[in-house]
Amino acid sequence: MSAERAYDQKQRQASSLICSGPVVLPKNQTRPTTAANAVSGRISIPEIAKRLSIGRLAVYAMLEQGMLPGIRLCRRWIVTRHAYEQWERTCGTTGFQRQVGGNV
Prior knowledge:
By secondary structure, the chain is mainly alpha-helical. It has a domain at 32-91: Arc Repressor Mutant, subunit A, CATH 1.10.10. 47% of the residues lie in helices and 6% in strands. It has five helices and two strands; from the N terminus they run ααααββα. It has a two-stranded antiparallel sheet. Helix 3 (45-52) packs across helix 4 (56-65).
């Protein structure tokens, strides 16, 4: 095997370890949202969807638009429980108050 081909093979293996993508679950099964996620400090996308009464795809769209706090790691979104709960307490505002109505 040539050195270039061996290098390419190692690169593919390394990238598959780093960006292996999400774990595929059966259609009606979600990741456990109990103690495991609470201890890790992360909140799952299905749990966010349930708390906001919206669909999973809407949560992903909100993450893409920056409306929800999250970090994209390869094909996976990481949302910390603390950041989400802080966002939830402030109703999604980012530090500025929006004026409603006339001049104040």
